[in-house]
Design goal:
CATH architecture of the largest domain: Alpha-Beta Barrel
Order of helices and strands: HEHHEHEHEHHEHHEEHEEE
Largest sheet: 6 strands, parallel
Strand order of the largest sheet: 1-2-3-4-5-6
Radius of gyration: 20 Å
Length: about 300
């Protein structure tokens, strides 16, 4: 539902009735239809206040909430989003509060034995000052874990927190993911006498194939490594990323440049002899020097064909 902007509870219901319910009615032979909500901090607060009303409405419409997108806490449809999508980061208490609100919503909605995920930001944005405050980021994740774990125990459900690795965030490459789980988060849990195996049962990943590909990583190899290391992937986003390859004709370059737009951030990466070059946004790529690179990839979601 992040495609359909909602600034309050009433907007959310209107959008669900307009876009989700008609599809659910066409596939009702399958019982229920899964829906992922996008809840920013304002809508989440309102949904929790009206949770009994919302539960009755869901039962009536045969919609089942399997996930909440709590990544953008701002209006994801404002004219310019860019790096504001990463605020507040996990160094801020507001992020913890909003996550716990979403977990409370799910704990009321889910039936015993059911599972649902909360998609969230992976730490902080590389070019924001709090990016280096890994200890505070870990502490806040563990605060969220403790609240979610308690809700899971109380309601006999399995709510999980799915961190979404994205270019230029705390978790982007497989190396940074492993460092975070095996060192940073693990050490923090040890200091606070929290069982890391229980943490990993609640905190895992939302793996986006586009994000991995932009960083020149193979999503299948990435998943295999995560499985070997016991790091759960609770959710997948299966999309592709555009690529610019030799020969670098002007037609190709112009076509690639058209992907640049003022609303969202399009982190771009170039590769030369296995060395990776980072560009904060597509607008910062020196296209006149394209011949120096073996390949260029940009964070711009493309459907798989």
């Amino acid at each position: 539902m992040n495609v359909h902007p909602a600034s309050n509870y009433n907007d959310l219901i209107i959008n669900l009735e307009k876009y989700a319910v008609p599809i659910a009615n066409k596939v009702k032979s399958s019982g229920v239809m899964g829906v992922e909500l996008h809840l920013n901090h304002v809508v989440a607060d309102e949904v929790l206040l009206r949770i009994e009303e919302f539960k009755i409405w869901l039962d009536k419409t045969k919609l089942q909430i399997f996930s909440v997108n709590n990544y953008p806490l701002i209006d994801f449809h404002q004219k310019i989003v860019k790096d504001k999508v990463y605020l507040p980061s996990w160094a801020h208490e507001e992020r913890v509060h909003s996550t716990i609100i979403c977990a409370k919503i799910l704990s009321h909605i889910l039936k015993k034995g059911q599972a649902a995920s909360i998609s969230t930001l992976a730490g902080a944005y590389r070019y924001h000052p709090e990016f280096t405050n890994t200890s505070l980021i870990c502490e806040n994740y563990l605060k969220a874990f403790s609240a979610i774990h308690a809700l899971n125990q109380k309601h006999s459900v399995h709510i999980t927190l799915a961190l979404e690795p994205e270019p230029d965030t705390t978790l982007d490459t497989i190396e940074s993911v492993l460092t975070f789980f095996e060192q940073d988060l693990s050490n923090c849990a040890k200091q606070k006498k929290i069982n890391m195996s229980e943490v990993k049962n609640v905190i895992g990943l939302n793996l986006d194939a586009c994000h991995a590909s932009v960083l020149f990583e193979k999503p299948d190899k990435l998943l295999t490594t995560l499985l070997e290391k016991g790091i759960n992937t609770f959710k997948f986003h299966i999309t592709n990323a555009p690529v610019l390859q030799p020969p670098y004709t002007q037609e190709k370059i112009n076509s690639f440049k058209k992907l640049n737009e003022p609303k969202y951030l399009h982190q771009t990466f170039a590769k030369k002899n296995n060395k990776i070059f980072r560009f904060k946004d597509l607008s910062e790529v020196p296209f006149e020097k394209c011949a120096e690179y073996d390949e260029v990839r940009s964070h711009c979601h493309v459907p798989l064909q």
